[in-house]
Amino acid sequence: MPLAWSDDYTTGDAEIDAQHKQLFQYLADLEEHMNGTIDDAYVKRFLDTLGLYTRSHFCYEEICMRAKKCPVADKNKEQHAKLLDAYTQFRHRFDVEGASTDLISRLHAFLESWLVNHILKIDTHLKKCNP
Ligand SMILES: [Fe+2]
Asked: Is residue 103's pLDDT more than 90?
């Protein structure tokens, strides 16, 4: 069942919330494809899109947190670097091995945990930093 967006995830910044919703959408899309045939072309496209979107989203969010002097700005940046490292490992594994049920299922678990844990524990601090 796809991870549902709720108000618990709101950061008080409409643009960041819209970007997070897009990430939820990517997760739902991946979940939909988990039940069908997994092919290299889909997974490549998925990883390419996720990588590009995430880098741009993290950049936007880090600038926003710094501008609002959010107390978790440094922690946010550190976690983003770790998430990007994990993403790079998935990318590398895919480049070497191609798509597999195991890779997709681990990628799904990673993305879901990131959305739930990182947004709820770090990004939502922005709510208190909004004027
Ligand atoms: Fe973040």
From this structure: yes
How many angstroms is it from 84 CA to the middle of ligand 1? 11
- Please state, rounded to an integer, the average pLDDT across all residues of the chain: 94
Lowest-pLDDT range of 55-64, 110-119, 122-131: 122-131
Contacts of 42 (CB under 8 A, 6+ apart): 33, 99
Ligand 1 center to 95 CA (angstroms): 26
Q: What is the pLDDT of residue 131?
A: 62
Dihedral sign, CA of 56, 58, 63, 65?
positive
Alpha carbon of 14 to ligand 1 centroid (Å): 14
The CA 43 to ligand 1 mean position distance, Å, reads 24
CA-wise closest residue to 125 among 37, 35, 52, 61: 61
CA of 54 to the centre of ligand 1 (A): 10
Task: Answer whether 0.85 is exceeded by the pTM.
Answer: yes
- What dotted CATH number matches 13-29+37-129? 1.20.120.50
